[in-house]
């Protein structure tokens, strides 16, 4: 299952992929169940995965930076 597809939560690149998938689903109400829109779905999922990994790496970097700041503050307090 994928996350919330609201446009304000994603990058412009992912929003394009999401909109293409939604458009395909609207135009192919029955064929979507037979795989008509699978390519759009794969592209959307690939984009969302990349977006998730980027956010995770950014969060990790921020966490490492904060840990380093705390360690430096403790060292200065000990001196």
Automatic annotation (TrEMBL):
It comes from the Eukaryota. Residues 52-79 are annotated as: Disordered. Its main location: mitochondrion. It is found in: Mitochondrion. The lineage of its organism: Eukaryota, Metazoa, Chordata, Craniata, Vertebrata. Residues 52-67 have a biased composition (Basic and acidic residues). The gene is cmc2.L. It holds the Pfam family Cmc1. Belongs to the CMC family. GO terms for cellular component: mitochondrion. This is COX assembly mitochondrial protein. Keywords: Disulfide bond, Mitochondrion. It comes from Xenopus laevis. The keyword Lipoprotein does not apply. PANTHER family: COX ASSEMBLY MITOCHONDRIAL PROTEIN, COX ASSEMBLY MITOCHONDRIAL PROTEIN 2 HOMOLOG.
């Amino acid at each position: 299952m994928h996350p919330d597809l609201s446009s304000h939560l994603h990058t412009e690149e992912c929003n394009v992929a999401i909109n293409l998938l939604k458009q395909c689903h609207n135009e192919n109400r029955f064929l979507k169940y037979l795989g008509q829109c699978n390519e759009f779905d794969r592209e959307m999922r690939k984009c969302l995965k990349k977006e998730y990994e980027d956010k995770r790496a950014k969060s990790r970097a921020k966490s490492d930076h904060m840990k380093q700041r705390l360690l430096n503050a403790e060292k200065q307090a000990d001196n």
